[in-house]
Amino acid sequence: MAVVSIGRVLTMLAEAAPDRPSITDQDRTVTRSQLESRANRLARAYEGLGVRQGDLVTVGLPNSVEFYEVCGAIWKLGATPQPVSWRLPAREREAIVELADSRLVVGADPAAHPGRTVLPAGFEPDDALDDRPLPDVVAPSFKAPTSGGSTGRPKLILSGDPGVVDLDARPPLFQLADGCQVVVGPLYHNGPFTFSMWGLFRGSHLVVEPRFEARATLSLIERHHADWIFLVPTMMHRIWRLDPAVREGYDLSSLRVVFHLAAPCPPWLKQNWIDWLGPDRIWELYAGTEAQASTLISGREWLAHRGSVGRPSAGEMKVLDADGRELPPGEVGEVWMRPPPGRERPTYEYRGAEARRLDGGWESLGDLGWMDADGYLYLSDRRVDMILAGGANIYPAEVEAALDEHPAVRGSVVVGLPDDDLGQRVHAIVEVDHPGAVDEGDLRSFLATRLVRYKIPRTFEFVDELLRDDAGKVRRSALRDARIPGGRPTGAPASESTGG
């Protein structure tokens, strides 16, 4: 079995086809040999700053060639990239950096993390540093993405897989060796990070958008003859909303695979994409960043099992009731999963949280669903409290904690309400002493220093009623359901407004 380190893979790709394009962003294209040279020089600069095998390195860079160069350098030292949003407020990033105990932070203001080594975006290593391959080492963990966690505190999810590539195995998720992938999701999210890196390791040319734009995405697929792309349903929706003449005006014949995941896809939208591109090009995967197990379904299978996210393709899954009894087909319960038998090491490690576990190695991410008689899984809800907005996981406790810091706020409850574009929008119910005690603009400014932009509520509602009882408990589902169109809000809001 040809299992080699990620650092060695980048060297091998450069040796095999040094002039082949490796990564393209809005500003430049680098070849495989240029990526290899840059990663080696950066690695030696990081090594001089103390980065060693097994360290975590926080990376807060936008979608760019630089992001991949930095990660390549980290892997070449046997360290682990720990991606975060480059827009994170300093306080939120500081909590993550402290939890990670990051040896180095890349992409932040050097003054933002006293006592830590920090490099700004655009850092240039000394030209005198050697750009030849480094000694071969393996990172004990491939990646360490973050999650806000249901407690509102950050947590890290360290991959249980080391930084290696099995060159004898088929490329994952129907990717092609030496293919072309358009990358549209933010690289600090697990899906875009993982799938694009898998493509990079197999020699795909990565074409990276700084941020998703529907028309630009189609243009890049056509221009670069891309064969593979990962989207979330919000992106699919925005592409579908383009004028049909515009959407149909692009040549997408090179596109072999469209993978979607990260949030439920409305059946009508998925049906339209199947009708547009054909059932054999549309694929869906369901899994958590923890990767205990996953399901897979093609568009053709989906037509026969409409609404399903597929059958388990890796690991095992079952649906249990509240007492831990396995439910028969068609009955809704909590989805539990575990890795395949014989796996030697866990699929992940939490830092800053504890997993929900049952005897026998079963774990739950909190999702509810049911299985049909053929073993296909259907999700009925995606965690009771968690909000999925545009493919991003947003935990109400984190947003509420920031809101409640404002001196004019007595309490708050954050819920997800249906949204045609994002799937769900973040809605804040804010308890104040009297109408006018604080306005939406004040709260937005206040939250901007505490939360990354996508976590800031899009709508606010001000009330003077008690939202929680004396024990601090809240009937979140009742508050949410009362605000879904057709229902009546609990109490009359003093004001409600919609933000961008």
CATH C-level class of the largest domain? Alpha Beta
Largest sheet: 9 strands, mixed
Helix count? 13
How much of the sequence lies in strands comes to: 25-35%
Number of separate domains: 2
**Cα gyration radius (Å):** 23 Å
Query: Please, what is the oligomeric state?
Result: single chain
Give the low-pLDDT segments.
Answer: 487-500
* Counted beta strands: 29
> In percent, how helical is the residue content?
25-40%
CATH topology call of the largest domain:
Rossmann fold
CATH superfamily of the largest domain: ANL, N-terminal domain
Would you give an account of this structure?
With 500 residues, this protein is α/β, with parallel strands linked by helices. It folds into two domains: 3-371, ANL, N-terminal domain (Rossmann fold, 3-Layer(aba) Sandwich); 387-498, ANL, C-terminal domain (GMP Synthetase, Chain A, domain 3). The protein has 13 helices and 29 strands. A nine-stranded mixed beta sheet has the order 3-2-12-11-13-14-15-16-17, with helices on both faces. Strands 18, 19, 21, 22 and 23 form a five-stranded antiparallel beta sheet that branches. The protein has a four-stranded parallel beta sheet with strand order 5-4-6-7, covered by helices on one side. Helix 1 runs antiparallel to helix 2 (32-48) and helix 1 (6-16) packs across helix 3 (65-76). The longest helix is centred in the N-terminal third of the chain and has 17 residues, at 32-48. It is globular and about 65 Å long. Residues 487-500 have low confidence and may be disordered.
